[in-house]
């Protein structure tokens, strides 16, 4: 072998050593994130979405005005209290100095970021209601449950006088064979234990949205995920006794 070809072969071997194959990269990316402190504490903004940041900043502006007794924290399911659920919101929460801290499309990591970046500034509500995690259904359920635990811990640290009502993630899909629903059910099984903590209650109202055979009630969740006005009314009614209790009204 000539010196020229020897050097070429050496260079090719070096490339193979230092640059993993596409399959190796794919396999590494497919590995589940380990459920440990480092993996789960992962606040993340959605800075690339201008509407998301506008919503975040508008929440911060409202919170700065004070007079906040009730928080609703979540994703689109909670965000849409502002639209499809507006009449129901006004009836149940309009007199309770309630603020909607939800943003459509959010995952647990986005909520963590928002709560650390102004959404809780200078307030001490009586109650914070949390329902988050349905957009994490492509993640490992243990990771999602750990994130939700981190959200609860963050609220307890930043708002020590505020009681927390943690809701089970709402059902999605037509029935229990739906893959996303199965993930949410596993998350709910894990986060239920958080209701044993001081100042924290866990509430599962998911039966409200089922008909026979645990099939989704399309008259309440027409797309299999988001409530319509009837769904929001059913949600508010099912949650009301606990909300009134935790706010010291009963």
Topology summary:
Elements: H1 3-18, H2 22-30, H3 37-40, H4 50-64, E1 70-74, H5 76-79, H6 86-93, E2 98-100, H7 108-116, E3 127-131, H8 141-158, E4 163-167, H9 179-191, E5 200-203, E6 210-211, E7 215-216, H10 229-246
Parallel strand pairs: 1-2, 1-3, 3-4, 4-5
Antiparallel strand pairs: 6-7
Helix pairs in contact: 6-10, 7-8, 8-9
**Helix-strand topology string:** HHHHEHHEHEHEHEEEH
Low-confidence parts lasting 5 or more residues at pLDDT below 50?
A: 2-41
**Regarding CATH, which class?**
Alpha Beta
- Count of beta strands: 7
* CATH superfamily descriptor: SGNH hydrolase
Please tell me the overall pLDDT.
Answer: 86
- Main beta sheet strand tally, sense and closure: 5 strands, parallel
Give me the number of helical elements.
10
* Known CATH architecture: 3-Layer(aba) Sandwich
How many structural domains can be distinguished in the coordinates? 1
For this structure, the quaternary state is single chain
**Proportion of helical residues:** 40-55%
Q: Could you tell me how far the N terminus lies from the C terminus, measured between alpha carbons in angstroms?
A: 90 Å
Find the CATH topology: Rossmann fold
What share of residues are in beta strands?
Answer: 5-15%
Query: Numbering strands along the chain, what is their spatial order in the largest sheet?
Result: 2-1-3-4-5
Q: Gyration radius, to the nearest Å?
A: 22 Å
Outline: globular
Structural class: alpha/beta
Task: Tell me about this structure.
The chain is α/β, with parallel strands linked by helices and 250 residues long. The chain has a single domain, classed as 3-Layer(aba) Sandwich (Rossmann fold), CATH 3.40.50.1110. The protein contains ten helices and seven strands. The strands form two sheets. A five-stranded parallel sheet has the order 2-1-3-4-5, with helices on both faces. Helix 6 packs parallel to helix 10, helix 7 runs parallel beside helix 8 and helix 8 packs across helix 9. The longest helix is centred in the middle third of the chain and has 18 residues. The N terminus is likely disordered.
């Amino acid at each position: 072998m000539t010196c020229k070809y020897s050097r070429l072969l050496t260079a090719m071997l070096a490339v193979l050593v230092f640059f993993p194959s596409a399959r190796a990269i794919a396999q590494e990316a497919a590995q589940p994130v380990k459920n440990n402190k480092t993996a789960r504490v992962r606040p993340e903004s959605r800075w690339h979405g201008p509407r998301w940041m506008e919503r975040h900043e508008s929440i911060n502006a409202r919170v700065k005005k004070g007079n906040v007794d009730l928080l609703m924290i979540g994703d689109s399911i909670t965000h849409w209290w502002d639209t499809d659920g507006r009449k129901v919101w006004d009836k149940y929460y309009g007199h309770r100095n309630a603020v909607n801290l939800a943003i459509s499309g959010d995952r647990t990591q986005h909520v963590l970021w928002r709560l650390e970046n102004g959404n809780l500034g200078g307030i001490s509500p009586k109650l914070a209601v949390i329902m988050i995690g349905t957009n994490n259904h492509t993640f490992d359920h243990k990771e999602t449950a750990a994130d939700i635990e981190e959200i609860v811990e963050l609220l307890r640290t930043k708002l020590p006088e505020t009681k927390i009502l943690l809701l089970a993630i709402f059902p999605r899909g037509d029935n229990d064979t739906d893959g996303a629903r199965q993930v949410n059910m596993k998350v709910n099984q894990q986060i239920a234990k958080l209701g044993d903590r001081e100042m924290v209650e866990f509430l599962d109202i998911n039966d409200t949205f089922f008909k026979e055979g645990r099939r989704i009630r399309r008259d309440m969740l027409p797309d299999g995920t988001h409530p319509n006005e009837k769904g929001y009314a059913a949600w508010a009614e099912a949650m009301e006794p606990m909300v009134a209790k935790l706010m010291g009204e009963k």
